[in-house]
Amino acid sequence: MTEGVPRYTAREAIALVTPGFTELPGPTSPVPTNPADASDSSDPTRKFGPDGPLSWQGYDASRARAAARTGEEESVVCGTATIGGTATVLISFEFGFLGGSLGERTGDRLEAAYAYARERRIPVVSLVATGGSRMQEGMRALVQLQRVARQSTLTREAGLPQIAVLRDPTTGGGWATLGAGADVVLALPGAQVGFAGSRVRPPDADPAAYTAEAQLAAGAVDAVVPPAELPGLLGLWLHLLSHPSAEPVPPPPALADTDLPATGWEAVGNARSPQRPCATAYLDAHLARRTEISGDRCGGTDDGMLCGFGVLKDGGRTVAYAAQTGTATRPAGYRTAARLIRLADRLRIPVLTLVDTPGAANDAEAERQGAGAAIADVFGAVAAARTPVTTLLIGEGGSGGALALAAPDNTWATPDSYFSVIAPELAAAILKRPPEEVHATADQLRIRPQDLVDLGVVRGIVEPPKPQP
What is the DSSP string of 53-94? Predict the structure, then answer.
């Protein structure tokens, strides 16, 4: 146990998030691994003698002791609950039952719970605490991860959200399926989280790398949440992810009463002004409630890309957002945005992107982190989206690093913004022009908002809201 970190039982973890829980009955017969096998309930590989498939001496006695100690029949408890007003299937691991390990009967229960969620079109929340696959069942236990992965994939294809809450500990295959495979991953403070459990790591491994906080920093977890805040945040996430809409997000009105620029260089100055409203101001003005996802699931985060879901103040609909904050966007930022857009597309939630960047980060580290592939990923996510995407250019639109987030045929601009194939200074340098010709180059590039409308790059220029009479 991680020192000072509470280790909740399955029932205690359920009580953390909901006062009401109805347990699902355990499967009376093995659930077929493959739907094609549904007509054959006599799988000979499931008929075991004493001590399980490996005849592991003492295994039946260990199960009996675990049941007597915990009051549970298996390492997972599955049922239904209402969290924040949203009905959900709730899965909770009992670490006290053989380390929360996954065996065949665990797989039966998990498969049945996922099937129940799909039948009733409700989301799945997993409260994970596991040491991995059950050694006493050998490879028959390990292949349960394939069963879980298939159920997660079927649920994803059905357009239903999956949320994981990582408790102490979450390791092994449970982390690599139910945990890391969820759409949104939350974790309790200090929880041990990692593919390698404490007894199988290299002896010189830094234990701090195997924590919820470390996984958050590495982009594998969306938030570390204190237990007292968990019910409210889970309820908000379930509400946001369970309300699809076919209507596009209207472009937000401009927040600054700025005149259209007379020259290209004036447009650049307006967009680069530190007094110009930034992405957080637009999100705060446009959304009543919002919460963020974090990380690219590949080891990185980017504070310059805000991604999440929120509720529109006007109309109360759920929208997804990916917003640049005026910095050069890192590869992790693009991958996080692509993840956000694909999740919103699968759940049929409209997307709003806010473009504001001098361009993609182009330092050596960005190249090593796959900048080109990350930008291509966002281009592809926007191009493939079936859910409507709306874009508002709120500041600098620097080349392909900005265009990747822009919706074809549904991009709008504020008066204090510009979009350019390249920054005027860089264009002049490439053309071997002296510095005094940068301003003229900006005019030649036709980067003002009104130029963008004339060129057909943006649909229109948004104005500040009219004062109420």
Answer: TTT-TTHHHHHHHHHHHHS-SSSEEEEEEEETTEEEEEEEE-
Give the pair of three-digit tokens for residue 164: 């994981």
- The encoded tokens of residue 408 equal 């074809």
Alpha carbon distance 307, 219 (integer Å): 13
At 78, list the tokens. Answer: 């599955």
What's the pLDDT tens digit per position in 104-126?
A: 999 999 999 999 999 999 999 99
Proportion of the chain above pLDDT 70, given as a percent: 94
Between CA 359 and CA 365, with CA 361 as vertex, the angle to 5 degrees is 170
Q: What is the mean pLDDT of residues 447-462?
A: 97
Read off the pLDDT of residues 369-409 as tens digits, 9 standing for 90 and up: 999 999 999 999 999 999 999 999 999 999 999 999 999 99
**Residue 7, both tokens:** 């280790």
Q: Token pair 């008066």 is at which residue?
A: 415
Cβ pair 294, 186 in contact under 8 A: no
Rounded to 5 degrees, φ, ψ at 310 are -155, 175
Q: At what angle do helices 10-17 and 230-241 cross, to 10 degrees?
A: 70
At 74, the amino acid letter reads E
- CA 17/CA 128 separation, integer angstroms: 13
Q: What are 193's strand-pairing partners?
A: 170
Answer for the pair 389, 351: CB distance below 8 angstroms, yes or no: yes
Q: How far apart are CA 413 and CA 325, in angstroms?
A: 15
Using an 8 Å Cβ cutoff, are 190 and 160 in contact? no
447 backbone dihedrals φ, ψ, rounded to 5°: -110, 0
For residue 44, is the peptide bond before it cis, meaning its omega torsion is within 30 degrees of 0?
A: no
pLDDT category, 198, cuts 50, 70, 90? confident
Strand partners, 80: 22, 89
- Tokens representing 35 are 């739907």
Side-chain half-sphere exposure of 393, counting CA atoms within 13 A: 39
**Amino acid identity for residue 121 in this structure:** R
